[in-house]
Every structure is written in structure tokens, then in C-alpha cells.
TrEMBL record:
This is Polypeptide N-acetylgalactosaminyltransferase. Keywords: Disulfide bond, Glycoprotein, Glycosyltransferase, Golgi apparatus, Lectin, Manganese, Membrane, Metal-binding, Signal-anchor, Transferase, Transmembrane, Transmembrane helix. GO terms for cellular component: Golgi membrane. It is a single-pass type II membrane protein. InterPro entries: GalNAc-T, Glyco_trans_2-like, Nucleotide-diphossugar_trans, Ricin_B-like_lectins, Ricin_B_lectin. It holds the Pfam family Glycos_transf_2. Pathway: Protein modification; protein glycosylation. Its cofactor is Mn(2+). It comes from Anopheles sinensis (Mosquito). SUPFAM superfamilies: Nucleotide-diphospho-sugar transferases, Ricin B-like lectins. Signal peptide: none annotated. Its main location: Golgi. Its EC number is 2.4.1.-.
Length: 633
């Protein structure tokens, strides 16, 4: 007995019951009716199946593959109000978001570190413990413990920020803080500062992601603390193995339910009214990524101070993070966000919608390194915008010492860099590779999905990014180092057996004089100096620059900043003098031959101790000092 005959029977039964007097007739016509019913059913079924197939095909077509679809689902189900799905702030209404009660309370707080003041340890035992903990953390953990978790910080925003109003309807926020072996009080101060200084209606949650720390208190005790004191706004996710900041941030982003993801380092403190200025540019266009101004929390005293009043992020061709001066007009309105080519990496806000459209981070990137370049390139090249918001400030503890070793035993950073360069930098990747032979030996792994993403989003070429967004980057950091003005050993005329020597010293330590190397054009690295295209003098032994703060001070080594100033030098081959800073200052490199020390003194043509011979001199470049070399700043 088949399904068909059963169906036919029931059809007959119904028909018979309703019109008994025609039952004979109906019985006679039974096969016809049965067939009609069945056909209708089959057609309906087919229709439903086709609709299903078409829907699936449409979804696959829209998202290219199931993976992307899944990512979109994360986003779709993450958001309550779907902030970006409907027009907002149509009337453009703005309100004052300041919490004046809190600001008043904070001004009146008294105690260690309040108002961001420096705190110094006095007790011998504390100092001893602090020294021990410094090796674990890279900052003064005992000082951190002495300072209240919800201490006040100084409101150092530009005064115009204090009267600034922001859109009334702003998206909600998930703050993602990943941590690895962070000190208890530094981590919790990050959390408290966010809880205290964010409007509760905007702060959906704080997600703490434990990247499989080895410190015990970051497991049971932290979980208990979060559950009893901080829940439900704060959630804690433990990763099953050490995954690095990229994978950990992705785990946090997947768990997030807010409209906007804000990534914060685990040793930060947010400042007054930090959130609205970060969110407004995103509310206006979801493809904008916004970074706060990063202030400095001193690693020794936890003093809170500004770093500067704004620079644009960039990189050099060793892929070191660098900063460029603002462009004319950037601070015409000191409260207005300005374009920045590259984010610093630790602190930024991006809509979940845009983050997932961009595929999040490339999860092939391991531990850390290169991820800020990857995201910044993607944002710019794939139709977004990256800005710094001057009215949003967040303090960050810059460690004085790097406490965590390499968990992989291979150079994962070079591999990460190569992944980013291969996918996003087009023909410019070669300039990175030229500077570091390790690139050639490094396998970047499978890049298929990253390249597909770039093609699917129809992202622009890297050349466009450089020329439109960072035109001054190519000027300040030429892809190939132009020829130097002079190089080789730098010999004293007053005492020809002595030459400048780095003495293998490091940053902030003085240079000195030492018996000259034999080969004057190619001496050993600690005597191999270059008067570079940037108008600074570099030593090959550690790639640091000669730096002098002011007249009569000793010359020290310092990281090259390519901003001239304290590091600008010129060689006058006729007088043989090495002139420091701008010419009108009349400051010259001078040797104390007895103590073998170097100073900057008032220029005096008659003093042989101010005269020097470079191993190699490019007379043509020197004669063209005003036009050859990095622009005068
Ligand atoms: C935060 O500060 C208030 C006083 O402003 C204080 O009562 C509270 O205990 C503090 N909480 C923490 C965790 O430090
Ligand atoms: C100095 O070293 C360079 C490179 O090693 C070499 O080419 C040159 O011949 C050397 N000069 C002298 C004088 O030894």
C-alpha cells in the first residue's frame, strides 16, 4: 500500500461524506481526482524546494562562501537594535554627554596617584618587591597596587572639547580587552576606568579575554571577582591555549554583542567623556574606524600625561611604526577627527558590521605583529576611513621592559609581515624584502582566502593608498635609502689616531672616541657612521642617531626619529666642521680629547678639536645641501 493510494482513499472518503447522493459518480471518477490532488501537491512541494534552493543560492552569491555568511550571522545576531540598519540622527540632534557629577567627584578625590599624579615608593620592602615585579611586568606593579582602581586622571583635552556636543543617538559598544599575564591592579584599573567613564546606555559590555595566562590569579580568583563584582557588564573568556593577541581579539569580537567593537590594551585608563567622540564618526558612517589620542602612563610612577597633541600614524620600510606630522588644516578645528594612515594598534573603535565585512583580522597572523598594518591597509584600500579623534583620550602604560619571550621559537613577526605585504602591498613589498634577507627565507603560508577577500571587496591598489592617504610617507621614508652625504669613519683632526666610536653603547648612552679602525670607508660597525639623507648621523652598530639636547651637552645615541631637530647635522668639508642643528645656532661637534668625550659647543673655526675627516664624502650632495636630502622641517 503506497502513499498515493492512501491519499486517494481519504479523498474519496471526504467526497463521499459530503455529497452522498453523488457517491457513485465520485467513486467512478476517483482516479482523476486523486491524480489532480497529487499533482497539485507535487507542484507545491517543488515550488517550496525551488524557493529554498534559490534562497541558498542567493545567500551564497551574496556572501561568496558559507564562511562569510557565518561571519555575517555573528554580526546579525549580535546586535539588538541594528543601529546601522536604519537611518539615525536624521534631525542631527546633539547633546552634552559629560557626566558632571563624576567629573566633580573626581576633582575632589585625594590619595596616591589621584588626578594622575606620579607616585613614588618610599618603603624599602615595597621598592624591593617592585624591582622583582618589574621583571615580570615591565612596569611598577607595586605602585599600581598603591593607586585606587578607580583613580581620577587629569582632563587634559583641548579646552574646546569640554563644550563639544555629540549626536544623541550613538551605537552601543563592546569593549574588548585581551590580556596575557597582566598584573591584577593594572588590568582592573582598565576595567574600572571604562565602567566609570562610559555612559551606561552606550556600554553594552566589557569582554575580557584571557589568552591562557600562566599567572594563577588570572584564572579562579579573577573569574570569581568578575562574577561577584563586575557581572553582568563584564564577561570573561578563557582561551584553551596561548593564541596571541590577534586570535584572542577575534574571539572577543565573535562574542561581542554591541554595534561597535572597541579594542583596548589591558593596561590603559580612559579619560573624561572618551566615548562619544569615538562613536560619532562611526554613527555617521559605519565604515569609519576611530582611534583615541594615546596618553602616557609612566611605567615607573603611573603619572598620567599627554604624549603630544596629535600625529598621523605611518611605517618605515623596516615596518617599524612611525608617526608623521599633521597636514595643514588637520587641526584647524582642534576637536575634529583627522585622517591617519596607520593605527598604533592597541586602541581603536570600529563597527562590528565593517569589521566583519573586512573579514576581521587575517587569522593566519600569529601572536602579534603586523596586525595594525593589515587592518589599516584594509580599511583604507577597501572603502573605509581611519581617523584620530582628538577629544577622546586614553592613557596607556608603555612598558619599560619587554617581559614576555617568544612563545613560538620562530620569527613569527617576519612571517606576519610577509603575509600582510604579499596580500596588500603590491609592488611595494619588495622594499621591505630588500631591507631584510629573512623575508626571502620565510614561508607566509596559505594566502588564498586573504587574496579572495581583496578581490571580492574590490580594494584599491597600495599605490593609491600611499599617494592619496600618506603622500608625505614616501618623502620622509623613501622606499630605497638615497645616497648619504658622507659615510665611514669620522677621524679627529686634532688627534688623528682617534675616531668617533659608539663604544657599542645603546640608546641614551654617550658616544666616545677610540683608536681609529684601519679601513676608513668601511670600518667596523661601531665606527661606521653615515651622514644620511635624513640629515642625521647614524651608527651602523645599533642603527641609532647622534643626538644633542642643547649647547655644551654631551652627545648621546638615540633612536633615529627622522625629524631633524636634536638629530640634525651638517658637514662643512671646507672648514671640516660638523654643525649641529640649524646653521644660525652656530653649534658644532667638539671633542674633549683627554676624557674622550663629545660635546656640542659654540663653533670656533680655530679649534682643531672641532675638525673632522669623514672616510667618504659625497661632494656633489654636500654642495647641494639645500636641495638634496630630506626636506627641512
Ligand atoms: C571607587 O571610588 C569610590 C569613591 O569615589 C569608592 O567608594 C569605591 O570603593 C571605589 N571602588 C574601587 C573598586 O576602588
Ligand atoms: C675597505 O673595505 C672595503 C669593503 O670591505 C674594501 O672593498 C676596501 O678595499 C677596503 N679598503 C682598504 C683600504 O682596505
Amino acid at each position: 500500500m503506497t502513499f498515493t493510494s492512501l491519499l486517494c482513499r481519504s479523498a474519496t472518503y471526504v467526497a463521499t461524506k459530503e455529497v452522498t447522493h453523488r457517491s457513485f459518480l465520485l467513486f467512478f471518477r476517483q482516479p482523476v481526482i486523486c491524480c489532480l490532488n497529487l499533482c497539485e501537491l507535487i507542484v507545491k512541494l517543488l515550488f517550496v524546494v525551488c524557493c529554498g534552493i534559490i534562497t541558498v543560492l542567493l545567500i551564497i552569491h551574496k556572501y561568496e562562501n558559507l564562511d562569510n555568511f557565518k561571519r555575517t550571522l555573528y554580526y546579525r545576531y549580535a546586535v539588538d537594535g541594528e543601529f546601522f540598519a536604519q537611518p539615525r540622527n536624521v534631525a542631527g540632534e546633539r547633546i552634552d554627554w559629560h557626566d558632571y557629577e563624576l567629573m566633580e567627584d573626581e576633582l575632589n578625590r585625594r590619595g596616591p596617584g589621584e588626578q594622575g599624579r606620579p607616585y613614588k615608593l618610599t618603603n624599602g620592602k615595597d621598592i624591593e618587591l617592585n624591582a622583582k615585579l618589574f621583571k615580570e611586568n615591565g612596569y611598577s606593579a607595586v605602585v599600581s597596587d598603591m593607586i585606587a582602581l578607580n583613580r581620577s586622571v587629569p582632563d587634559i583635552r583641548h579646552p574646546s572639547c569640554r563644550t563639544k556636543q555629540y549626536l544623541k543617538e550613538l551605537p552601543t559598544v563592546s569593549v574588548i580587552v585581551i590580556f596575557y599575564n597582566e598584573h591584577w591592579s593594572a588590568l582592573l584599573r582598565t576595567v574600572y576606568s571604562v565602567l566609570n567613564r562610559s555612559p551606561p546606555s552606550l556600554l553594552k559590555e566589557i569582554i575580557l579575554v584571557n589568552d591562557h595566562s600562566t599567572k594563577k590569579f588570572l584564572w579562579g580568583p579573577l573569574r570569581e571577582f568578575v562574577e561577584t563584582e563586575l557581572s553582568p557588564k563584564v564577561r570573561l573568556i578563557d582561551l584553551p591555549e596561548r593564541s596571541g593577541l590577534i586570535v584572542a581579539r577575534m574571539a572577543g569580537a565573535r562574542a561581542a554583542r554591541g554595534d561597535v567593537l572597541i579594542v583596548l590594551d589591558s593596561h590603559t585608563e580612559v579619560n573624561t567623556n572618551w566615548l562619544p567622540p569615538l562613536l560619532e564618526p562611526i554613527a555617521e558612517d559605519y565604515r569609519t574606524c576611530v582611534c583615541p589620542f594615546i596618553d602616557v602612563i609612566a611605567h615607573d610612577t603611573f603619572q598620567y600625561r599627554s604624549q603630544d597633541e596629535g600625529k598621523r600614524g605611518a611605517f618605515d620600510w623596516k615596518f617599524y611604526y612611525k608617526r608623521l606630522p599633521l597636514l595643514p588644516g588637520d587641526l584647524e578645528d582642534p576637536t575634529k577627527p583627522f585622517n591617519s594612515p596607520i593605527m598604533a594598534g592597541g586602541l581603536f573603535a570600529i563597527s562590528a558590521k565593517f569589521f566583519w565585512e573586512l573579514g576581521g583580522y587575517d587569522e593566519g597572523l600569529d601572536i602579534w605583529g603586523g596586525e595594525q598594518y593589515e587592518l589599516s591597509f584594509k580599511i583604507w584600500q577597501c572603502g573605509g576611513r581611519l581617523v584620530d579623534a582628538p577629544c577622546s583620550r586614553v592613557g596607556h602604560v608603555y612598558r619599560g621592559y619587554a617581559p614576555f619571550g617568544n612563545p613560538r621559537g620562530v620569527n613569527f613577526v617576519v612571517r606576519n609581515f610577509k603575509r600582510v605585504a604579499e596580500v596588500w602591498m603590491d609592488e611595494y613589498s619588495q622594499f621591505l624584502y630588500e631591507r631584510n634577507p629573512q623575508f626571502a627565507k620565510t614561508d607566509p603560508g596559505d594566502l588564498t582566502s586573504q587574496r579572495e577577500l581583496r578581490a571580492r571587496l574590490k580594494c584599491r591598489p597600495f599605490k593609491w593608498f600611499l599617494e592619496e592617504i600618506a603622500p608625505d610617507l614616501l618623502v620622509r621614508y623613501p622606499p630605497r635609502d638615497p645616497q648619504p652625504f658622507a659615510s665611514g669613519r669620522v677621524q679627529s683632526v686634532a688627534e688623528p689616531k682617534l675616531c668617533l666610536d659608539s663604544l657599542n653603547h645603546q640608546a641614551k648612552e654617550p658616544i666616545g672616541l677610540y683608536t681609529c679602525a684601519m679601513n676608513k670607508t668601511h670600518p667596523q660597525n661601531n665606527q661606521f657612521f653615515t651622514l644620511s639623507y635624513h640629515r642625521d648621523i647614524r651608527v651602523r652598530s645599533n642603527d641609532k642617531c647622534l643626538d644633542a639636547a642643547k649647547l655644551n651637552e654631551e652627545v648621546v645615541l638615540f633612536s633615529c626619529h627622522e625629524s631633524q631637530g636634536n638629530q640634525m647635522w651638517r658637514y662643512d668639508y671646507e672648514s671640516k666642521m660638523i654643525i649641529h642643528g640649524k646653521d644660525h645656532l652656530q653649534q658644532c661637534l667638539d671633542a674633549d680629547l683627554v676624557r674622550r668625550k663629545l660635546f656640542v659647543r659654540s663653533c670656533d673655526k680655530t679649534k682643531p678639536s672641532q675638525q673632522w675627516n669623514w672616510g667618504y664624502v659625497n661632494f656633489v650632495h654636500l654642495q647641494n645641501w639645500d636641495v638634496y636630502g630630506a626636506k627641512f622641517l
